[in-house]
TrEMBL record, chain A:
This is Ferredoxin. Pfam families: Fer4_13. Ferredoxins are iron-sulfur proteins that transfer electrons in a wide variety of metabolic reactions. Keywords: 3Fe-4S, Electron transport, Iron, Iron-sulfur, Metal-binding, Transport. It comes from Streptomyces rugosispiralis. Residues 1-29 form the 4Fe-4S ferredoxin-type domain. Its cofactor is [3Fe-4S] cluster. Transmembrane segments: none annotated. PANTHER family: FERREDOXIN. The keyword DNA repair does not apply.
TrEMBL record, chain B:
Residues 6-301 form the FAD/NAD(P)-binding domain. It comes from the Bacteria. Residues 321-384 form the Reductase C-terminal domain. This is FAD-dependent oxidoreductase. InterPro entries: FAD-oxidoreductase/Apoptosis (IPR050446), FAD/NAD-bd_sf (IPR036188), FAD/NAD-binding_dom (IPR023753), FAD/NAD-linked_Rdtase_dimer_sf (IPR016156), Reductase_C (IPR028202). It comes from Streptomyces rugosispiralis. Its cofactor is FAD.
Length: 66, 396
């Protein structure tokens, strides 16, 4: 799994951080998403898929080729 | 409870797509059909009053998912063909083109329809903003307008006023409240928002009632207020709220009362569920029926519905949350700033326009608001989680 985030779309809601704190964080100054791990281990995949689906700005994209 | 072999979802936007995605994520392999009234693939609404209206994003950028991601869902999207009737007992949905689609479970996610003002129909230059087509039409007219009046001082009216102003249009925002979004933000923060709009040059006509739209030759030319004053405008945007899009369910036997009335599991009848802006469900923590009109609720509630279709039997009890962007302000609100709640700044400073405020009502924390401090606001949301849920109930 490979994750990309679109900082310009992100509204800083932080839903992703609530769901997958090992993979996503937010910048202190404006709350924009910080990707901690672009290719997380299998154990995180379910949470990452949920974060991508729940993100209210559709700012998280996944490519699941691996 | 057995898992249904097929699910049909009416409404192909945030809540409809959210239902389909959550079902697949939870391992559902059955047939999935998503019906959409609009011809467009699922797109996001928050950018419509912000980046899409301003023109900084092309409409394509507001699409919720790529073609590939939609294909991977393995759901059939029947777009441009609205549902027109539901047979609750048979669990079939009939569409405008004459299709009949059956589902072991049916999910209603048809959202809202904007309210309009009484007055002559079909006056050119009068707009509402709910759909992508609305946003395109409004943008096209604002580009050549000198003066616009936005009627409605809620979140949508305030956002449209800010965006139209940045497009170089002279904007007047009209509404009955003492400050824009006073109900959603409380008086102090609403005043700050009013100041922000004034500084940028938006004219505010607060505490004003709109009497009628005025027109000439079939085109709007102004807005007449209760006191007789006429605000001239080439474009008028009506943002006075929206009503649940449930006309197609009239006569279905479902209880409709400002939304599809559901139990704590978002179930309107056996095998029939509702999610998103259209759903009025019994919030188990609050002990009262609630209908939320915000983006995170649409996906969270649809995930709850998906779980309940698959037999999770979990009541849906979210902490309400929404955000809004206006000029350089990003405001995030967790919980409900109840009328009469006392506000304290717990981080940052109002003077810096970077702060987190906590709202207390009867000694309990009922809301946390961040103004340009989203991460910190989310951290303070913990204080809300510590409260019993009924703290957020609106006092009667
Ligand atoms: C301009 C705008 C800006 C917003 N900004 C914010 C924001 O900044 N933050 C925030 O939290 N929220 C915001 N919101 C609210 C948020 O977009 C909504 O809460 C969310 O879209 C609700 O999703 P939904 O799927 O329930 O309903 P909708 O998005 O309304 O989708 C319902 C869909 O059902 C379709 N439909 C209707 N009738 C039928 C039928 N009979 N058959 C089939 N399909 C049908 C409609 O065409 C529509 O596509 C904004 C809303 C708007 C309009
Ligand atoms: S959930 Fe989406 S919008 Fe919110 S912080 Fe994460 S990426 Fe940004």
């Amino acid at each position: 799994m490979k994750i990309t985030v679109d900082e310009e779309k992100c509204c800083g809601a932080g839903q992703c951080v609530l769901i997958a704190p090992e993979v996503f964080d937010q910048r202190e100054e404006d709350g924009i998403v910080v990707l901690l791990d672009a290719e997380p281990a299998d154990g995180h995949h379910t949470a990452v898929r949920e974060a991508a689906s729940v993100c209210p700005a559709a700012a998280i994209r996944l490519s699941e080729s691996t | 409870m057995t898992t249904p072999s097929s699910v049909v979802v009416a409404g192909a936007s945030a809540a409809g797509l959210g239902t389909a995605e959550a079902l697949r994520r939870k391992g559902y392999r059955g047939r999935l059909t998503v019906l959409g009234a609009e011809p467009h693939p699922p797109y996001d609404r928050p950018p419509l009053s912000k980046q899409v209206l301003a023109g900084t994003w092309t409409p394509e950028r507001a699409r919720l998912r790529t073609r590939e991601a939609l294909d991977a869902l393995d759901a059939e999207f029947l777009l441009g063909d609205p549902a027109v009737a539901l047979d609750v007992a048979a669990r079939t949905v009939r569409t405008a083109s004459g299709r009949t689609v059956h589902g072991g479970a049916v999910v209603i996610a048809t959202g809202l329809r904007p309210r309009t003002l009484p007055g002559p129909d079909g006056l050119a230059g009068v707009h509402v903003l709910r759909s992508l087509d609305d946003a395109r039409a409004l943008r096209a007219e604002l580009r050549s307008a000198e003066r616009a009046v936005v009627v409605g001082d809620g979140v949508l009216g305030a956002e449209i006023a800010a965006t139209a102003h940045t497009m170089g249009v002279a904007v007047t925002l009209v509404g009955p409240q003492p400050a824009p979004m006073a109900r959603q933000l409380g008086p102090t923060v609403a005043e700050l928002l009013a100041a922000l709009h004034r500084e940028h040059g938006v004219r505010l006509r607060l505490g004003a009632a709109v009497d009628a739209l005025t027109g000439h030759g079939g085109r709007v030319d102004g807005v007449r207020l209760g006191d007789g004053e006429v605000l001239p405008a080439e474009v008028v945007v009506v943002a006075v709220g929206a009503v649940p899009d449930t006309a197609w369910l009239t006569g279905s036997g479902l209880t409709l009362d400002d939304g599809v009335v559901c139990d704590a599991y978002c179930r309107a009848a056996d095998g029939i569920y509702a999610a998103g802006d259209v759903a009025r469900w019994h919030h188990p923590g609050l002990g009262e029926p609630l209908r939320l009109e915000n983006r995170t609720n649409a996906v969270e509630q649809s995930a709850a519905v998906a779980g309940n279709i698959l037999g999770e039997a979990r009541p849906y009890a979210p902490i309400p949350y929404f955000w809004t962007d206006q000029f350089d302000a990003r405001i995030h609100v967790h919980g409900r700033p109840l009328p009469g709640a006392e506000m304290t700044v717990v981080d940052g400073a109002v003077a810096d326009r970077r702060f987190v405020a906590q709202y207390r009502h009867r000694g309990r924390v009922v809301a946390v608001l961040g103004w340009n401090m989203p991460k910190q606001a989310r951290a303070h949301r913990q204080a809300l989680l510590a409260e019993p849920m009924d703290a957020f109930a609106v006092p009667s």
